[in-house]
């Protein structure tokens, strides 16, 4: 590929001063000053910026041309593991059962329903017909409580501004009610005649909740609540009982909830006023609120109760006390039961509690690593729950569980049409020792005939931000790497919550560098134990995980054979200094506020990938971005690539692709996403050694 000449971005001085420190950002010009309009209308992008991005796209395609056969093989393998004509297990609701279906050759699912026990199947919404030939992303579909209407939403350019539609399920016709610039979700009032929704401002911040009565002009919808703090987002939902609409104001470490009677409507009432660092979530049963909270030092959360009539924090009473090291992740209520999900030592479990007696039972599994989730369904007054299980070797399974009788029914195991034998693979949970002595969990998957002699390539995936735990579940795509002799590993690094809330706080703000050193320690441990060799690791991460990729590329470039950074958050300092950007104010609790704090400024500047590029050798690097991405704006990866091209001293490939009509989630459509995966995997295989 040495005959290819990569694009070279022009440098244009752009000086800024903060805390008495002057900086020059020569690639600032790649940020279109009209970026808000670009999010909605990509065609208005500045011509000079477009020319540069398209030149990079041409270089990307030229460089990857020699991988066409490999990409096609991987694409066909992954697609061959998908049962294209498939349906989800229906959830029952009154006289009906609701489910989704995918059809052979079709990109998008259908939303369907049948009679409660089967028969008379009807397609309520066919997303393939709605998508046409362009970008399409569903914001969800929600049927009204009386089952006569379906509210659904769509984003048609990747900017995540969703338009809400309402469909008459008797005729299939859309009502005139159309609402633009929303987050996409709809919460129905109990009478099925109105719903609540959240709108986004020009900075892409969900900041207002409205109430819409069917048939009314949306321009006259009643404003229910407006969030005054630019650092907070709004969300709207409903308790599982269906009795209360909940309006949630939150950033990454503080929340505040208001409630409205879903039957009587009226003005929202506050549960507990926001306190910095206090997070809480609300459910309801029989006139009691059940509140998931970290109040009063409950770092790993506890459950308390409070009367709906007077839910002030002074009336909170402990139900499930705080237990350090046992992370209470989520919960829901049935009429007679409380179902919660916990994590202990990085593994999930489900606890079912009888409300009257307080008796509890545990649902867990014995594999070294697995994922487990649970759902209560639409119906509040029954004793059935549904849980979902998978591991790196076990395809997803769906179980229905009757709490009273303890009867468990396997409803579905994901079919792998091309075949899958779990005994051909091995899953292990290892631990890497971080520089400060912390033990970092690492989940690995490899072929059963693998030998740890240091000759195999390895893909190491990581994220490590926002308290997001990386589940060790089944992946139909990673088998294409493992079957070629590559080891696949997930580093459960600090910044997630795999080992409790402390694991999160130990990887945020002024502890952020632990995230990077944990990932490097995981790679070094895998080398020491013979799973791979130094320089033969393909590291992969996206969004905040893309920031991780940029940081470790700067800090330990010789450990990796390649870096795959998808929509990478790499221009951390400049973004956190710009409070006009969509996500900056709500992000300050996660990263720090370098505008007001020199300490935060200095710390972010010390690791921000864009600001720490040096004149040295870097691994091969693959970068992907979306022009209409409101979360990681396209110019972050563009600037990062431009500076890397200018400064790196190696001849390793650096390739960069911008989707000119897509956003943070990449291309829409399940098969188009497989093509993206095949691109990244082909690059990983080409830039490491030892794959078959």
Care to describe what's here?
This protein is an alpha+beta fold and 692 residues long. It has 13 helices and 39 strands. The strands form 9 sheets. The protein has an 8-stranded mixed beta sheet, with helices on both faces. Strands 3, 4, 5, 6 and 7 form a 5-stranded antiparallel beta sheet that branches. The protein has a 4-stranded antiparallel beta sheet with strand order 8-9-10-11, with no helix packed on it. The longest helix has 18 residues, at 47-64. The protein is globular. Residues 7-413 form the Peptidase S9A N-terminal domain. Residues 474-689 form the Peptidase S9 prolyl oligopeptidase catalytic domain. This is S9 family peptidase.
